[in-house]
Specification:
Distance between the termini of chain B: 48 Å
Radius of gyration of chain A: 21 Å
Largest sheet of chain B: 5 strands, antiparallel
Oligomer: heterodimer
Largest sheet of chain A: none
Structural class of chain B: alpha+beta
Largest interface: A-B, 33 and 25 residues
Shape of chain A: globular
Number of strands of chain A: 0
Order of helices and strands of chain A: HHHHHHHHHHHHHHH
Number of strands of chain B: 11
Strand content of chain B: 5-15%
Chain lengths: 351, 854
């Protein structure tokens, strides 16, 4: 079995891999985006999306099309595809697919917690959660007052429980703490996912590990940049960095020490691929933010995943690319709806 | 009727449609299906075209119609058949239809919403009723169980009161109940969460419902559990409430006392009854509305479909400068021009336009599409040809010859009288009931395939009967109609055979040289006596092998000869000398001569000198080696003739290889330019409007114009290298192909042998077993065996063998026959016709939601 995974990969996963590659062919291409960007109204946008793989997914929305409706429908389509894949998958692919959903679950959970802090009813918040990260106990999250309670009462049954071991504390949940909790959860999640892919070995490891390492490093950079001006101590900050990335360990300790944007950039200079990302992202050079550049790099990595065969990376890459596509379309739709045509080209084309 | 042999002459025409009557004109053209429209604004994206809003309106109407159809189907109301297809509605009427549809939709959706609400209400009430009935059990039980502890609790509380400690009562808290239903699957997780979140300060009792209940939210039928939670205090109450929400429990108020419960139950009963009557009424009303809608919904679907098609066509047209009329460019068969004019007049009249729309023939350098008119008989054969490739414009069409050769080659491989009769009868039945709507409307794809090829199957069956008679085989048995030409009796009288001879010798040979044994040839087909002979296979193999070679050479030569008509039509006379003649010589000198030798041998050697008949194969090989090897010549001067033939064949190769390129080179550089080169180049489908404007004045209608007069300007750049390369490939392909293709025709022999052997095996293994036993049980066995025999005959011999023979015949036509002359690089003429629109309600996605995934 070991080392010959190519031989029997198709026995269990061949159908789904073929399927996901077929789905991938439906991802919008550059000319599609160019056409979309030319649209004048959302109706035109709908007409155009009809000629793509989305088909008439909006046809039953007769009047007053809004951006959020388009967003919901696109997510719904992705969810339907993902559910199909998930329910036809076998171990270990099903665990892998579950791992993909965990990150959405973390986001959803924190969205609900912050919402509860601001006294928003759960019924308002639930529709705003990402459908990929839905889980049963979501509605009850607002009951919890402290992380321990949250864990003990609600999350212990969910798959997220495994990420909670370290991040339990008795402090009350507030804005800052939720962010810290989010980052701690993510750290454990990415490290665990990375470990899973490593154990899987073969092409899956070759493809997935660079993607996850990049994801880890991106989080480290983002945490550092966002923590400027808060009262987060260096040690605390260092504790939030996922350790499975390329930056570990020297880069992370350097990041933990850095105090401003220039120092972060100096850290990135030590790494060829991050240097490129930070180079153009100064303060307004061709108005691309650091975030966009990270997204671009992510898209590149994910698109590369489709070049090799017999691995699980394609599933991850497909979900991420589709997510990016949704972001793109929503951006374009938003620009059209608000009549800000000058910024419409700021999407990130995928293929 | 020249159109059978080559595709019809096409012309490019411009239609000037007055904007007022354009819609009616296009509608008229759609009904008649005369012309193919070209896109005049390919650069404009689909949502920037002129009639987008109209198309959108059509789509909106389709959406409503789809909704209507779904509702009608849900109700189970049958849709009436539409016999006559209604014409597209005039634009004025569209608004009316639209209004009607919208009103219907509004009405329907309101009623449906009401109905849904009522149904939901009803479900909730039933759930409530069920819950109350079950929770009564809980209460009774708990009252009985808790009788003891209650006494202990009261002093505890009172003591608290006395000491002034915080007690439940002082906080105003009291025992609270929450009761409701939850899905069975979620029960355990719910209970666990409840326990964890409330730290056990609740009492949870539950019991499963016996019957399945429809969920009011999702409409699914699930098993549910009724639960009752009792708790102390508001804080916990809120928590419990939240947890219930999270698990989508259906909560219902819990009555405090038994009397209240009975009251509620009573009122529930009356309300349920009321609701049911209201629901019944609503249903009836809904049915009425849908009944009314179903009468015209089919007409509307067709009308909207036509309308949408018309607007799509109008989007292909361009506007002239004054915006008063639309200009369309169409391909139209020259023969149909008058019909086109008449249709336009009719359209203008209907549209009430003051200025009529008119046609203008314009020159074009594009490749016209290929139109071959077919009828129900020829369409099957034309489809076979088209599946290989649609013929180039005005190219020789192999289909009319295929009508004869295809069934014939099939029958050579499928030669059996009995099987042919079964096949022909089946096809005849299909032909006779082709008007029966039940047969034609069948949705089964395999059946439709057979049905579409019914005439072909009929022909194949008839030809199989013929070849079966020639082979003298009927279910692998021979028919002795004219009595065999061989006589065994003569052997007894002349050679003094006795019964002893018969008994001692397992094999005996009839000697045709003995007088009286062979009394002449059997009048038609193969002598039935061969069926009993043990050397039957040797005899038939030799015969069928030779026959396949002869058939093959004839078939291929015919293909080459058909090329002549192409060369003549396209005015490429040099091809006649430089391509056709060497090709034909090469084939005939080698394989044609082989055929001649075979026939010669049949004729020249009679029964008497059969022992000294030479081997054709040896002679054929010697012909290439140019030696005699001591064989006696077949005829005087054989050596000279053979050398001559081989040399001719070899000489024709360089002619074929170099002739055409050299000639073309000379043509382009030698000065004398020949103007008759007529080739059609495929060009981009660009607009030729500019050209037409200048030319339109001097082009009166009716002036006959030949398309080729202007094709010279598209004369291609001459490139000797590519022409040489092309011709070299063609030569190699042809010369090697001659050998391999001739060998390929041997499949005729191989398949007919296989068919004969298989049917013989079937007879020997199955029917003979049944015939052998001659007791009473034998008849039963025979009947069983006959059933088995007929099933196997149909499934293996008719279907499987028939399919394989069909495929081989197809290959012989496509590869061996058509590559001798047929280009097949044309584009099919697809006229704009309403009859070509997908018909039926299910096919256009109106019905049902298209599944989002898979």
């Amino acid at each position: 079995m070991l080392g010959f995974s190519e031989l029997n990969f198709n026995v269990d996963n061949g159908y789904l891999e073929g399927l996901v590659r077929g789905f991938k062919a439906g991802i919008l291409k550059r000319p599609d985006y160019q056409n979309l960007a030319q649209c004048e109204t959302l109706e035109d946008l709908k007409l155009h999306l009809q000629s793509t793989d989305y088909g008439n997914f909006l046809s039953n929305e007769s009047e007053d099309l809004t951006v959020s409706k388009i967003d919901d429908k696109m997510k719904e389509k992705l969810l339907a595809e993902f559910r199909y894949l998930r329910s036809h998958s076998l171990q270990p692919l099903s665990t892998f697919l579950d791992y993909i959903t965990y990150s959405y679950m973390i986001d959803n959970m924190l969205l609900l917690i912050t919402g509860a802090l601001h006294q928003r009813p759960a019924s308002d918040l639930l529709p705003r959660c990402h459908p990929l990260g839905m889980f049963e106990q979501m509605g009850a999250i607002s009951i919890a007052q402290t992380p321990t309670e949250l864990y003990n009462a609600i999350l212990v049954d969910t798959p997220l429980a495994q990420f909670f071991q370290e991040s339990l504390s008795e402090i009350n949940l507030d804005e800052m703490n939720t962010e810290i909790m989010r980052n701690k959860l993510y750290k454990v999640y990415i490290e665990s996912f990375h470990k899973f892919c490593k154990e899987e070995g073969g092409v899956t490891e070759e493809v997935m590990c660079p993607i996850l390492e990049f994801e880890a490093d991106r989080r480290a950079f983002t945490i550092t940049v966002n923590s400027f001006g808060t009262d987060l101590s260096r040690e605390e900050r260092h504790g939030l960095f996922p350790t499975c990335g390329r930056l570990s360990p020297q880069g992370l300790s350097m990041l933990a020490q850095s105090e401003d944007h220039e120092q972060v950039k100096a850290v990135a200079d030590h790494y060829a691929e991050y240097k490129l990302i930070f180079e153009g992202s100064g303060l307004s050079s061709n108005n691309k933010t650091l975030e966009d550049r990270f997204f671009e790099h992510e898209v590149k990595l994910n698109a590369l995943a489709f070049l090799s065969q017999f691995h699980f990376g394609v599933f991850y890459a497909y979900v991420k690319l589709k997510e990016q596509e949704t972001r793109n379309v929503v951006w374009i739709a938003e620009c059209i709806a608000q009549r800000q045509k000058s910024k419409i080209d700021n999407y990130i084309p995928i293929f | 009727m020249g159109s059978v042999f080559r595709s019809e002459e096409m012309c490019m025409a411009q239609l000037f449609l007055q904007s007022g009557s354009a819609y009616d004109c296009i509608s008229e053209l759609g009904e008649t299906g005369l012309v193919e429209f070209r896109d005049l604004n390919p650069s404009v994206s689909s949502f920037q075209r002129k009639f987008v809003s109209e198309i959108k309106r059509c789509e909106e109407m389709e959406r409503i119609l789809g909704y209507l159809l779904r509702e009608i189907r849900k109700m189970g109301i049958p849709l009436p058949d539409v016999e006559v297809s209604p014409v597209a509605p005039p634009p004025k009427q569209v608004l009316e239809i639209m209004e009607q549809l919208q009103r219907l939709e509004l009405e329907l959706s309101e009623v449906a919403r009401n109905k849904e609400k009522l149904q939901r209400n009803l479900l909730e009430l039933t759930e409530y009723g069920l819950m109350l009935r079950l929770t009564r059990g809980f209460m009774c039980r708990s009252e009985r169980d808790q009788l003891g502890p209650q006494y202990e609790e009261f002093p505890f509380l009172e003591k608290d009161n006395v000491t002034g400690c915080t007690s439940m009562q002082r906080l105003g808290a009291k025992l609270g109940f929450i009761s409701g239903l939850i899905q069975r699957a979620k029960m355990e997780a719910f209970e666990r969460m409840l326990w964890r979140a409330c730290k056990g300060y609740t009492i949870f009792s539950h019991s499963e419902l016996d019957e399945c209940v429809q969920d009011p939210d999702t409409g699914e039928v699930t098993k549910s559990v009724v639960f009752l939670i009792s708790f102390w205090g508001d804080q916990i109450g809120q928590k419990v409430q939240k947890i219930c929400d999270c698990y989508h429990c259906h909560l219902y108020p819990h009555p405090d006392s038994a009397e209240e419960r009975d009251e509620v139950l009573e009122s529930l009963k009356t309300r349920t009854q009321d609701l049911q009557t209201v629901l019944h009424r609503t249903d009836e009303y809904l049915r009425q509305v849908l009944d009314r809608a179903s009468e015209s919904v089919c007409t509307w679907v067709i009308q909207v479909k036509k309308m949408k098609a018309i607007y799509h066509i109008l989007n292909l047209c361009s506007f002239d400068v004054t915006n008063k009329c639309l200009i369309a460019e169409v391909w139209c068969p020259v023969n149909d021009l008058t019909a086109l004019r008449r249709a336009l007049e009719e359209g203008s009249r209907k549209g009430g336009a003051t200025i009529p729309s008119f046609v203008n023939r314009i020159p074009s350098n594009g490749t016209p599409p290929t139109l071959l008119r077919t009828n129900k008989f020829t369409s099957g054969f034309q489809n076979i040809v088209d599946a290989y490739g649609v013929g180039s414009y005005r190219e020789v069409n192999p289909a009319p010859y295929t009508i004869v050769t295809f069934p014939f080659l099939f029958a050579v491989m499928f030669g059996d009288l009995g099987h042919g009769v079964v096949m022909a009868l089946f096809a005849l039945w299909m032909v006779l009931c082709e008007k029966d709507p039940k047969v034609t409307r069948s949705k089964n794809e395999i059946w439709q395939m057979f049905f579409a090829g019914r005439y072909m199957i009929l022909m194949m069956g008839l030809f199989s009967i013929y070849t079966g008679l020639i082979y003298n085989e009927c279910f692998s048995k021979s028919l002795n109609v004219f009595s065999s030409g061989w006589s065994v009796r003569a052997m007894f009288t002349e050679l003094h055979w006795t019964n002893e001879t018969l008994r001692t010798n397992p094999l005996l040979t009839l000697d045709p040289n003995v007088t009286g044994v062979f009394n002449g040839v059997y009048p038609f087909g193969i002598d039935p006596i061969w069926n009993m002979a043990s050397n039957r296979l040797t005899f038939l193999n030799s015969y069928k092998m030779k026959m396949s070679i002869i058939v093959g050479v004839l078939h291929m030569s015919f293909g080459i000869v058909l090329g002549v008509f192409n060369h003549l039509h396209f005015r490429q006379k040099f091809n006649l000398y430089l391509v056709f003649v060497p090709e034909l010589l090469f084939l005939l000198c080698l394989f044609g001569y082989l055929g001649v030798m075979i026939v010669y041998k049949w004729l020249a050697f009679s029964v008497r000198d059969s022992s000294m008949a030479p081997s054709v194969l040896v002679h054929f090989i010697n012909m290439f080696l140019m030696k005699t090897d001591g064989e006696t010549p077949l005829y005087p001067g054989q050596m000279v003739v053979q050398v001559l033939l081989v040399v001719t064949a070899l000489l024709s190769v360089p002619v074929l290889l170099l002739g055409k390129p050299v000639y073309l080179y000379w043509l382009h550089h030698g000065g004398r330019s020949q103007s008759s080169y007529r080739g059609y180049e495929r060009v981009q489908r660009g607009s030729v409007e500019d050209l037409s404007v200048t030319l339109s004045q001097d082009m009166e209608e009716g002036v006959s114009h030949s398309d080729h007069s202007i094709s010279r300007e598209a004369h291609p750049e001459f490139d000797l290298g590519s022409v040489l390369l092309h011709q070299a490939i063609h030569t190699i392909e042809y010369c090697l192909g001659c050998i391999s293709n001739s060998a390929s025709y041997l499949r005729l022999w191989a398949l007919s042998l296989a068919h004969a052997q298989l049917s013989e095996v079937l007879w020997n293994m199955v029917i003979r077993l049944g015939l052998r036993t001659d007791s009473r049980a034998g008849s039963v066995l025979l009947a069983l065996m006959f059933i088995l025999f007929s099933v196997l005959t149909v499934s293996i011999l008719l279907l499987m063998e028939g399919l394989s023979a069909f495929l081989h015949a197809l290959r012989l036509h496509w590869v061996e026959f058509q590559n001798k002359f047929y280009g097949g690089t044309g584009v099919k003429f697809i006229p704009f016709a309403f009859s070509l629109l997908p018909s039926g309600l299910d096919q256009d996605g109106l019905m049902g939601e298209a599944p989002s995934v898979l």
